[in-house]
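Anyone else keep sequences and structure tokens together like this?

Example one:
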Amino acid sequence: MAVEKTKASTVDQYIANFPENIQSRLTQIRQAIKAAAPDAEELISYSIPAFKKHGMLIFYSAYTNHISISIPPSPVYEVFKKELSVYKTSKSAIQIPNDSPLPLELIAEMTKFRVKEDAEIAAEKARKKVQQ
């Protein structure tokens, strides 16, 4: 279960709610996402850390036995299907066991994919708006 009893208003507060070993894992994920999406806004959404550009890019959260990476509905899960096959997944989340190494490169690549996808969606919306 995520430590959400004390609602965090910042990512730093969210991370500070966890034991040191989990704080370290969350910080590494945060840094990997920031490096892959340097222009994205970091925020708390649905009580967990997230990154947003035009739309929501990626969320991450900690639980008793795993870290969850959540991405809004996207082809990203199909594109990275092989790499994700070693993790428990749902249609919008990946569970990384706390006793497993963090796939930081994979998280960064998935984030870059989402940044590109997000830009394409925003451009398409802008084109449609101009056509109206």
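And example two:
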Amino acid sequence: MIRVFRSVTIQKLFKEEDLNDLINDFRKYKESGFCPDYFGRDVAYDHPHTPSLILQEDVRHVHLSEFGAWPVRLMQFNRTSDRHLVYCQGAIHRECYLLITLLSPDAHEQATVSNVMRKIGEQAEVFRMKY
């Protein structure tokens, strides 16, 4: 059974009801592989500028649509945006996930800011040491 945890950071970014909806959609996505109509490409941060802690803790992000549902025939891999749901998976308990933050707007630019990524990496590290 998939367990989804929420960081303090992400709790500050969403209304409780909206965050619960996001968590439920994320859980269903990880359990079934079914991609909600506003979820896009799901990839690790693995660019040349990515800090080593982010790589080590396997921090990933899902592109979220900025304007409602993606076109039905658009493949998940081609669904890209500048709005990223950042998360990590447990190192030992692979059924556990932590939703860390939402990078928006300018997610790609924010992902190059050392301080932003360091804080994300630290949260992932603490979570993965426990799970």
